[in-house]
Amino acid sequence: MDSSSINLFGSEVESIRVEGARVSLRFSRAYIEKTMTGSRERTRWWQSGTLIFDGAEVLEALPEAPAVCDGGDVSENVYTYRDMLPLPMMGKGPAHCNLRFRDTERRLVVRAEEVSLTMDDREHYIEHIRA
Q1: 43 CB contacts (<8 Å, ≥6 apart)?
Q2: Among residues 95, 107, 21, 102, which one has the least CA distance to residue 67?
Q3: Nearest to residue 7, comparing CAs of 37, 22, 36, 27?
Q4: Number of folded domains in the chain?
């Protein structure tokens, strides 16, 4: 596969934790799309993982979890990822997060010094997406 990214829409969030200057968003099911150069078709997978912000400050009241993500922005350095996260992801520089969740007005809004995404276990195949 040439590229993999998490589609934030519909990804299932198990928990959101604040421990000192670390904010962790735990995905029980992050939905991944994989593509290959030259192919119009993709595959869809799910995998658990954790989005971690270090040197972080929470800027709004946290949404309750478990929850379903409805998209939003995650920034690291000069890049802003809208409604998706690239795999792998690790940024040592200014980071920002503004994520929406289904059935609530609350958002996860974080400013941080670093961001990383750690995936667990293995990916689980869901489907082949034809063009």
Answers
A1: 1, 33, 34, 125, 126, 127, 128, 129
A2: 102
A3: 27
A4: 1
Using DSSP's 3-state secondary structure scheme, residue 24 falls into strand
Residue entry with tokens 């890049």: 79
Residues 129 and 72: beta-carbon distance below 8 Å: no
Q: What's phi and psi for 82, nearest 5 deg? A: -100, 120
What does DSSP say about strands 3-19 and 22-35: parallel, antiparallel, or unpaired? antiparallel
Span 27-77, pLDDT tens digits: 999 999 999 888 888 999 999 999 999 999 999 999 999 999 999 999 999
Cβ count within 10 A of residue 27: 24
Distance CA 44, CA 33 (A): 5
Give residue 41's domain range: 3-129
